[in-house]
Amino acid sequence: xxxxxxxxxxxxxxxxxxxxxxxxxxxxxxxxxxxxxxxxxxxxxxxxxxxxxxxxxxxxxxxxxxxxxxxxxxxxxxxxxxxxxxxxxxxxxxxxxxxxxxxxxxxxxxxxxxxxxxxxxxxxxxxxxxxxxxxxxxxxx
Length: 141
Hints:
Order of helices and strands: HEHEEHHHE
Number of helices: 5
Largest sheet: 4 strands, mixed
Strand order of the largest sheet: 3-2-1-4
Structural class: alpha/beta
Number of domains: 1
Oligomer: single chain
Helix content: 40-55%
Distance between the termini: 11 Å
CATH architecture: Roll
Radius of gyration: 14 Å
Number of strands: 4
Strand content: 15-25%
Shape: globular
């Protein structure tokens, strides 16, 4: 799994990405993924109640490290505004290119950064913004 300094680096990338947006980004790390990663990400997104954000602007980055599988699931508030039809797939491909080099935390941070960019464009941070979801990486036990 990831080391403490790598987890801290990812959490910091989430904090930085969210500093410019009212959007919410979470990272969920598992060892293995049984089945399709996007289906797993969808289930986890709803289990974590990420669909309860005020503006429906949550993004979950799901990573199964041992299987080198990943998925990105974004709520309907975000997907309504994305103009690039392959944005999430391109973000995922970027992450996977780092994973293949053994640079797991770097790949996750790149994905967080790209999600933050799209969130910033559509959901800029407001004066009274509240961080609705925790920024710490969730590790599946």
